[in-house]
Structures are given as C-alpha cells and as structure tokens.
C-alpha cells in the first residue's frame, strides 16, 4: 500500500501544525474543514470594523512553538509578546484589583496586609510545583503510550514523593500554603483554564502555577491570537498543502483493516493512504465511526469540561482604566465553583474574564473605539440546554462590569455577538458545547484518554484536545508532534 497521501479532518491548531510537520516530511497533505475558515476554536470574528479573537487569549509554553518551527525548518510566522503582569484579578466585595506580576517580590507587596509572609509561602509553593512539572512533563505528558500497561509502568517511575497529590484536589493543596481567601482564589484560578474548578481538579495540576509564574509565563500574539493561524496557513500554502472548506465528514468506508474513504455531507468520497482526525477524538469515534464505546450513552457518561458563554463587544470609546487581561470574581467563590459546572443557577454571573484586544493592537478597533471579548464559565449543554435567556445573562455581566470599572458601557455598544455553548457546539462539533473537550480527570488522561491511534483502522490517527496529551494551544502543538511520530512509524513499518 502507498503511504504518502494524508487527509486531515479539521483545521484547528492541532490539524494545522500536524499538516505542516507532515508536509515538511514529504507527505502530500490535504485538510478538510467544516467551516469557512481555519483555526477551530482559535478563531476570529471580523464585524462592524472590529476584530475579535474568539477563544484563546494567550498561550503558555512558548518553547513548544519554537520546537514546531525548528521541526518544520521555518521561522515562526507570528510574533509574540511576554505578559507581565500575567493578568489582573478584581474582587467584587472589596473592589480591590491585584496585578499578577511574575516578580514574586512585587506580587507580594499587594498581599502585605492580608497574607503575612506571602513571598516565602509563594516561593515554597512554586518550588513544589516546579518539582511536579520537572518530574512529569517529559515522562508522562510528551510521550506516546502504546498500551495502558506501558502508561502505568511509566507512572510508576514518577518520583513517589508526589504520590500524596493524587489524593488531594487543587484547592486542598493551595490551602496547605496560603491562609487568605484572596491568595487561595487567585492562585487556584489557573485550574479554570483546564475547564474545571479547583475543587475537582487534581493537585497534580498545581504544576500549572510553575508554568505561569516561574517557567515560561504567558504570551500575547501581536495583532491578535488569530495571527498564529494566519501565519501557519501561509506556511502551509508555501508547502503545497490544500485546505478544503465547507466540508464536513459524516461517514466512512472500509477495506479490511484500513479506512478506505471518508464521506462528506454531500456524499463526496475522500480517499487517502493515511487519515489524521483533528475533530474531537471521542465524538468522531462515536458519531462518524459508530463505535459502541463512544455511543451517545457512553459519551454522556464521560467527564466533560464546562461550557463558555463568550461575547464580543465593540464600543465607541476607550477604556483606559481596564487592562488587557482581566478576571472579575464575585464574593462566593466556593459556592460558585460548586455550581458552575452543573447548576444553571441565577442569571447574575459575577465571575468572568474580559480581554481588551485593542489595548495593544490598535488595528483591531476603529479609531477611538475598544474591542472587548468576555468569557464566562457556564454549565455545558448537558446541564443547561436552553439559552433563551442569553441576552439577559449577557446584560447582567455588562452591567456588573460597568459598575466595577465605573463606566456605563451599554450606551456605547456598537457591535455585539454572542456565542452560547449552543453556538460552540454547532460551529466546532464540541460535545454539548463543552469548551475544552474531555476533562483532565485522572481516568481521562494519558493512556486513559482516547488514544491518538485508532483501535480498528491501522491507517487512522488523531490529534487535538480530546486525545493525548490534552487541551490548550501548547498541548495541541505537542499532540501534533506525537501524532507525527505515529504516522512516521506507520510509514516505516
Ligand atoms: C472560550 C475558550 C477560551 C480558550 N482560551 C484558551 C487560552 O487562553 N489559551 C489556550 O492555550 N487555550 C485556550 N482554549 C483552548 C484551545 O482553544 C483549544 O484547546 C485548542 O484550540 C483546540 O485545538 P484543536 O485543534 O484540538 O481543536 P479545534 O480547535 O476544535 O479544531 C477542530 C477542527 O475540526 C473541525 N471539525 C470538527 N468536526 C469535523 C468534521 N466532522 N469534519 C470536518 N471538520 C470538522 C472544527 O470545525 C475545527 O475547526 C480556549 C478554548 C475556548 C473555547
């Protein structure tokens, strides 16, 4: 059999980075994408003169992009800027805003009156996080596992000093280091970046505090996050990769142990030697390959991340008092975290993130205007299927935001677009609108996550958030490296 033609289903960051790695290795690559433009969740809306990033607002582990560029023999086709402060956190009750500086001394001054010896506590906490990171990242996260047994043997090699973390959640680990509610809430916020809360995220993930504060931090992209996609797409064009838009894969045909073709919404058959699926690895197995293990009842039993209510607001004035990346927290953190995943709750949502893209990217808004992107964690569609109240929820957040920054923005809104979990589900085939795909519970990571090779077809592989290693932009880039290894191994067999 020929092993040179590759078909990739999905032009998300996982699909795009895989396409370039494989094209540079001499494969003939075509990408099929259901939407009208590339990027998947890392996307862009252009409307009323404003430019909005739709999902990610910054990324970590910049060295993964450097590795990707080196592997492909290119210079990175976008520029990124280190964030310091990483972001701000505002508390509703006290009105106080904290700036998350990477310099721990500078950070500590803000906690002087609420958390004695913050600096020493933070250094001690971060040292532990660094140990966890160093002892797991290369061994467990950046590896392909051929079997559950191989994965378990590797886990047994992780320094046993970290074993107690398996029996604690993120919040319990934080409680061991900090006493004040503010410090605990601020430092555990990163667990929300995994699409869950500090109360149901394993303490192992405190390694993310090392990633954000001491290891490599967070980065903005000049011109907006979508420049990552535009840059990679232009490299793909140079490398001869074709992207076919408006093409959604719905069905398939087999030939013995191999997948023979994929069939799109119009019945057109797409044949290839090798197939890489960037659509959700669990959902595609269930809904396209009809696998029993991923049938609807089985999918529903899995642990999915929360949904996101995102909205994109253009206003006809500047907001000098608001920073680029801002978190706004209410006064009932524990109760909120307990309810956010499952309980649709009240309309009022005093926990959200606001990104002012035009702050450092003037081209993203008309002169004198500001581009605002709000993200509010909400239950996914399993728990809140009905979004008829979306305008009321959005208005309540805009009112809360206006009150907290001291400027009424409703009368200044000249562009408004809302994505509830319904739009996220429809647009990107995300199961029940779950923003980050499968959650990172211990039974859904490593070899327990849907694997990046197919159980049945020897010529089918997977890349992206719901296969190994997990969600987030750097993980998608690592995932593309891991799947490329799989494809190369298959070619050389
Ligand atoms: C609101 C929000 C905020 C986020 N913020 C951050 C952040 O700040 N930093 C960060 O690192 N990460 C962030 N993330 C996570 C990050 O966006 C994702 O983990 C990452 O973009 C996933 O990339 P992917 O390639 O795995 O999948 P996707 O981006 O989902 O790409 C899959 C592609 O496949 C296409 N597709 C699906 N099914 C089919 C089919 N049957 N046929 C053809 N095409 C199909 C989809 O349309 C899509 O284009 C955020 C996510 C969300 C939702």
Strand portion? 15-25%
What would CATH call the homologous superfamily of the domain at 5-39 and 225-302 and 440-491? FAD/NAD(P)-binding domain
Bound molecules: flavin-adenine dinucleotide
**Class computed from helices, strands and strand pairing:** alpha/beta
Low-confidence stretches: none
Describe this structure as you would to a colleague.
The protein has a seven-stranded mixed sheet with strand order 7-6-15-16-17-14-18. The chain has a five-stranded parallel sheet with strand order 9-2-1-13-19, with helices on one face. Strands 10-11-12 form a three-stranded antiparallel sheet, with no helix packed on it. The protein has 15 helices and 19 strands. The mean pLDDT is 95. Helix 1 (13-23) packs parallel to helix 9 (226-238). By secondary structure, the chain is α/β, with parallel strands linked by helices. Among the domains are: 5-39 and 225-302 and 440-491, FAD/NAD(P)-binding domain (3-Layer(bba) Sandwich); 112-205, Guanine Nucleotide Dissociation Inhibitor, domain 1.
Quick summary of this structure?
This protein has 493 residues and is an alpha/beta fold.
Features:
493 residues; alpha/beta; FAD/NAD(P)-binding domain; Guanine Nucleotide Dissociation Inhibitor, domain 1; 5-stranded parallel β-sheet; 15 helices; 19% strand; globular; binds flavin-adenine dinucleotide
